[in-house]
């Protein structure tokens, strides 16, 4: 369950979506995104615990040739993987008020991303959002459970000219207005 400190964005603000029906399908979605990354991207993953955010990142990493086991950085805060691109996987679920982003190396990560040498993927990304000035617009995902236990809906929001083309490439459909 997300705590009141972890509000989720309003699904109505996400124009595209796709359903996954298994962990594998969510990994495949992450892999399709990974295959299109060029370096310099920021991917923000919202969704309650168990939505499959870490599964998504696992697929993304594997598509970039990363063989390491991809596990949640909930306690380490930042996990870095070297593949075709460097992936910095961050998770701010447990960050406390006393921990500054500087202390955990986020500024160096952002410099590397800004230089196009790495991608940044963050779960529970709210503490990061005010720091993203100067980077390319983030790809923002919201994963939510469906009615079936293995069903998830992944919604995407992305302020970029190529957003519609990317969404189509990833197999996403335009979502209707109002709640889905
Ligand atoms: N469609 C699905 N996509 C992703 N995970 C799923 C799906 N259906 C069931 N699951 C299960 O949900 C859990 C997701 O865990 P995880 O990726 O760690 O979530 P999060 O990082 O969002 O907290 C896993 O146990 C996975 O097997
Ligand atoms: Mg996770």
What's the short story on this structure?
The protein has 180 residues and is of the alpha/beta class. Helices cover 23% and strands 24% of the residues.
Rg over CA atoms: 15 Å
Q: Indicate the CATH topology.
A: Rossmann fold
Secondary-structure element order, N to C: EHEHEEHEEEHE
Question: Please, what is the average pLDDT?
Answer: 94
The tally of structural domains comes to: 1
Low-confidence sequence ranges: none
In what range is the share of β-strand residues? 15-25%
- The CATH homologous superfamily is called P-loop containing nucleotide triphosphate hydrolases
Strand order in the largest sheet: 3-4-5-2-6-7-1-8
Give the CA-CA distance, first to last residue.
Answer: 21 Å
Q: Structural class, from helix and strand content?
A: alpha/beta
Q: Work out the number of β strands.
A: 8
> Which term fits the overall shape?
globular
CATH architecture descriptor text: 3-Layer(aba) Sandwich
Characterize the main sheet. Answer: 8 strands, mixed
> Portion of residues in helices?
10-25%
Highest-level CATH class: Alpha Beta
Which ligands are bound? adenosine-5'-diphosphate, magnesium ion
Commentary on this structure:
With 180 residues, this protein is α/β, with parallel strands linked by helices. The chain has a single domain (18-168), classed as P-loop containing nucleotide triphosphate hydrolases (Rossmann fold), CATH 3.40.50.300. The chain contains 4 helices and 8 strands; from the N terminus they run E-H-E-H-E-E-H-E-E-E-H-E. The protein has helices at 23-36, 53-63, 106-114, 163-169, and strands at residues 16-20, 42-46, 78-82, 86-91, 118-123, 139-145, 152-158, 173-174. The protein is globular. The two termini are 21 Å apart. Bound molecules: adenosine-5'-diphosphate and magnesium ion. Adenosine-5'-diphosphate (ADP) binds next to helix 1 and helix 2.
